[in-house]
Amino acid sequence: MTEKEKKRLVKIGDNLRKIRESMEYSQEDLASRCTVERAKISKIENATANHYITTLIEIAYGLNIHPKNLLDVNFDFENED
To answer: Within a domain: residue 44?
Structure first.
C-alpha cells in the first residue's frame, strides 16, 4: 500500500467511525444492519483494508471529479432483494 493510499484510507476510516459513533452504533450493531462483517468494518475504520476504496478515489482523481460523484446514484435499497 502506498503512503497516498494509506492516508486516504485513514480519512475514510476516521469518517466512518465518526458517523457510526454519532449514531451510537457499535461495530457489531452496524454489521447486523448490513451485509458487512464486523471484522471488515474494523479493518476499514483502522485503515488496514479495502483497496477498492482507494481505487475508486484514484479513478475520481483521473476524472477530475470528487469521489462522492461516483456514488451519487439513486440506490433503491428497499427494492434490492
So the answer is: yes
Q: Residues 5, 51: contact at Cβ < 8 Å?
A: yes
* pTM of the predicted protein model: 0.77
pLDDT digits (tens, 9 = 90+) for 30-69: 999 988 899 989 999 999 987 788 878 888 888 888 989 8
Letter string b/e over residues 23-48, b meaning 16 or more CB atoms within 10 A of that residue's CB: eeeebeebbeeeeeeeeebeebbebe
Report the candidate in 80, 8, 73, 9 with the shortest Cα–Cα distance to residue 43.
Answer: 9
Domain annotation covers residue 81: no
Nearest-5° angle of CA 61, CA 63, CA 20? 50
CATH code: domain of residue 10:
1.10.260.40
